[in-house]
Amino acid sequence: MTDAATMDKIVALCKRRGLIFASSEIYGGLGSTYDYGHYGVLLKTNVKNAWWRAMLQERDDIVALDSAILQHPKTWEASGHLAGFTDPMVDCRACGQRFRADHLGDLPCPQKPSRHPGEGPQCDLTEARDFNLMFETTMGPVKDSGATVYLRPETAQGIFVNFKNVLQFSRKKPPFGIAQVGKSFRNEITPGNFVFRTREFEQMEMEFFVEPAQAGEWYEHWKRARLQWYTDLGLRADHLRMREHDPDELSHYSSATADVEYLFPIGWSELEGVANRGDFDLTQHAKHSGEKLEYFDPQTKERYVPHVIEPAAGADRATLAFLVDAYDEEEVAGGTAGEAGGQRTVLKLHPRLAPVKVAVLPLVRKDGQPEAAREIVAALRGLMQTEYDEGGSIGKRYRRQDEIGTPYCVTVDHQTIDDQTVTIRDRDSLEQERVAIGALGELLASRLAAPWQSPKLAVV
Ligand code: ATP
């Protein structure tokens, strides 16, 4: 059986259920920018929280940081972004479109989509030239050259320029890390594939500072740990791989880089990069700022510039991977326990990532059922993201929750009023069981915390 998920279906579901949709829609949209609606915000927040949890709560050698998006322009001089953060770009004189020269083979020609740019009879491509991906803006009311600042193209540099600060107030010593989540901006030449590549996106980056001799060991550690994070959150292991960069792919400062790749509907693509950056960043910022960015070991009396291992992930790209991995379509035999027959679309998300954990549904809008359901919502709300829904047939309401990946539906029926019990419907197995209202909170909380694996694992 082939995987039901295609990019078009994911885009359609996200729009239908208000997870993610085109930005500025009333003005016709703005190329490849997206807004997240209620369920999308909940989902992406859960992804970011899972990352923070792995970085902060489950270890004691990483501290958090939230640096400004606008930084001193010298930051980008020191980091090399001003001179070298470029992609090769070509223009087509015939259709007026621009393309990334190294992506031509993956792109359709706008005039003849069955061919690639440059292959159509009228195509007339220019020579490739470098295009800097940083967005420029002006700081303050005066527009002169001294006021030019940049929207950060990555969160990492905010960490490096704060190395000394953090070292002082956190009382950490290598090996230790600084983690940050936030927006980054890149004027991508060819954004696309929904939120896979956009011009404004969120990154989850951590810089781990180590003694130079230990860099290789920590590089291996972080590759393992980051791959594990995705599988622990339910991504199918056979849709994930670690791809080590060839020597000619490496940036000049990196001695080793590997990408965590996911098998998206567009093929194997980068989810996250793990890089051994050596001492490049701290050395560069020390040179440009005049500050010493090093660590003095009081025991050995040695002073050294720590080396850096960087796992750099994208929150939007990870969210897309979780959506793709979870998306499924199934035939359901109708008639039993309120299930509507026919095809259902369901997001088999890891319960920890699901936007809503439980929906409470009165079977009918009378006989005291809505009141009983609202009481249950009030009791569960403090424990987990809970939703009340009384609109439409019970079968339709189950489908709605399936489409946003709600792992459990609690149904209040006539028996509830007699004996204070409800049914719990499991999103994946569709099984229903009757439990006492008093036991609901504890039961659901323990199920949400239990290890979970994708029911799609058996489907190849
Ligand atoms: P790519 O090769 O796809 O352009 P990159 O190697 O330039 O990515 P990094 O600079 O390593 O990416 O950024 C770390 C992570 O940030 C990426 O793995 C990805 O998840 C995310 N990311 C980078 N650029 C974008 C973008 N334009 N849109 C969405 N996410 C992005």
Q: Give unreliable regions as ranges.
A: none
In which order are the strands of the major sheet placed?
Answer: 3-9-10-16-13-12-11
Percent strand equals 25-35%
Q: C-alpha Rg, in Å? A: 25 Å
- The portion of residues assigned to helices is 25-40%
Distance between the termini: 6 Å
Describe the overall structure.
29% of the residues lie in helices and 27% in strands. It has 460 residues and is an alpha+beta fold. It has a 7-stranded mixed sheet, with helices on both faces. It has a 5-stranded mixed sheet with strand order 20-19-21-22-23, sandwiched between helices. A 3-stranded antiparallel sheet has the order 5-4-6. A hairpin with a 6-residue loop joins strand 4 and strand 5. Helix 2 crosses helix 9 (315-326). The radius of gyration is 25 Å and the shape is globular. The chain starts with 6 loop residues before the first helix and ends in an 11-residue tail after the last helix. Adenosine-5'-triphosphate (ATP) is lined by residues 154, 186, 188, 197-198, 201, 203, 270-273, 312-314, 316-317.
